[in-house]
Amino acid sequence: MNTSASRYRHLLAPVFLAGLGLASCNTNQSTETADVTADPATTTMPAAGSMAAIKPTGPAPEWAPNIAPEMLAVIEKLDSLSGPTPPHKLTPAEVRKAPSFKEAMMAVMQKYNIPAPYSAVDTMSKMVSPGLKVRIYTPQGATGPLPVIVYYHGGGWVIANLDTYDASQRALAAKTNAILVGVAYRQGPENKFPAAHDDSFAAYQWVLKNAASFNGDPKRVAVAGESAGGGLAAAVSIMARDKGVQAPKHQLLVYPIAGYDMNTPSYQQHTKSKPLYKDFMDWFFTNYLRSPADGKNPMIDLVNAPNLKNLPPATVIGAGIDPLMSEGKTYADKLQAAGVPVTYKLYPDVTHEFFGMGAVVPQAEEAENLAANELKNALK
Predict the structure, then answer these.
(1) Banded pLDDT at 69 (limits 50, 70, 90)
(2) How confident is the model at residue 35 (pLDDT cuts 50, 70, 90)?
(3) Residue ranges making up the domain that contains 99
(4) Which of 166, 322, 326, 349 is catalytic?
(5) Distance between CA 85 and CA 377 in Å, rounded?
(6) Is 45 within a domain?
(7) Per the database record, which ranges form the Alpha/beta hydrolase fold-3 domain (predicted)?
(8) Which residues lie below 8 Å from residue 92, measured CB to CB, with a gap of 6+?
(9) CATH of the domain at 365
(10) pLDDT tens across 176-210, in order?
(11) Centroid of chain to Cα 84
(12) N or C: which terminus of the chain has fewer CB atoms within 10 Å of its end residue's CB?
């Protein structure tokens, strides 16, 4: 493998493995299963060649004139895979079946012949209670007990699953040399607020009690999440404090849903952005919340939570082309004002969902490295 291709080695496999046969996170399953992973000696991989610069086919859109070219290439591919009807006009069942950013990224990787080597992370799925499933990612060859990251995927509490965010989870596990426990929480509209939040806290408590059973260290546990999952990780940190449960060592919040105000500066600026935009966020709220009153609940409206003191140190990562940018920054500022140590980093030229795209988007690799370093320092 040539030098330019090998630098992507640890981030490529997660994406292709997700598309090559990892079981979807069906919370109705009732057995503990080892997920199928590919054998490096038998896996068929694209031939490695000189990695060309990833370029979009058209000009930057009006809604993102400064978008990074690699990011735009993924968005263009997502547009080509999607139908003409915008997702906020579809049913949750329809959106769940539609191509996601994961498929778009995989298509870009295939177009540019980016190889997909085996990722040295084993996975096992486990039901921890009726209707609540986790997937445990363990770096191969690591000696334990290892620190643990409890991870909550995105999707507005309505769509997506652990497969959709498999690349992020594998990257974090590999880069931190920690066990990552991905949580397949219940989703709306079938299970309205606070179902996802209750499941998220229950999974965190399960990890504290059972970490030793999968070679984890129950005294070194952090929480992490993207988008809705970032909001869930923040909420779990608050619930742990308020209920007298062991606090996470760190909270990684990647472009979290942290508020209910859809008139913030970034909502106004990125009304038509992709893949997340204002009407789509309204659709998520409608499908998860029982009523608009739930939007004012401190577990949803984190930026207006009455007490943010004595919470774990936080890393907050933002995307510049994202309606959630303002609330993420506001939440970071309010945590810091409450005395919580915070690292905040904004990546201005990328969109929502960029994290985990390190195989094709340079800013994503930078964000993954930042997140991993912050977690490693917290979990020493």
Answers:
(1) very high
(2) low
(3) 3-28+70-378
(4) 322
(5) 45
(6) no
(7) 149-355
(8) 158, 159, 188, 189, 287
(9) 3.40.50.1820
(10) 999 999 999 999 999 999 999 999 999 999 999 99
(11) 26
(12) C
Q: Which residues contact 263 (CB under 8 A, 6 or more apart)?
A: none
Contacts 24+ apart (CB under 8 A), 362-371: 362/68, 362/70, 363/68, 363/71, 365/11, 367/254, 367/317, 368/11, 368/168, 368/171, 368/172, 368/175, 369/175, 370/315, 370/317, 370/343, 370/345, 371/172, 371/175, 371/224, 371/252, 371/254, 371/315, 371/317
Residue 47 is predicted with a pLDDT of: 33
At 156, give phi and psi (nearest 5°).
Answer: 60, 25
Q: How far apart are CA 207 and CA 219, in angstroms?
A: 10
- DSSP H/E element including 223: strand 216-226
* Distance (Å, whole) CA 311 – CA 256: 16
Indicate whether 46 belongs to any domain. no
Q: Of residues 119, 168, 200, 227, which has the active-site annotation? A: 227
- Identify residue 134 by its one-letter amino acid code: V
322 given a catalytic annotation: yes
Indicate whether 62 belongs to any domain.
no
Buried b (16+ CB within 10 A) or exposed e, 226-243: bbbbbbbbbbbbbbbbee
Active site residue 266: no
- On whether the CB atoms of residues 227 and 352 are closer than 8 A, the answer is yes
The number of angstroms, rounded, from the C-alpha of 245 to the middle of its chain's C-alpha atoms is 24
Give me the catalytic one of 153, 197, 250, 352.
352
Q: Quick check: is 352 catalytic? A: yes
Tell me the whole-structure pTM to 2 decimals. 0.89
Q: How many domains does the chain have?
A: 1
CB burial of residue 136 (10 Å; 0-12, 13-18, 19+): buried
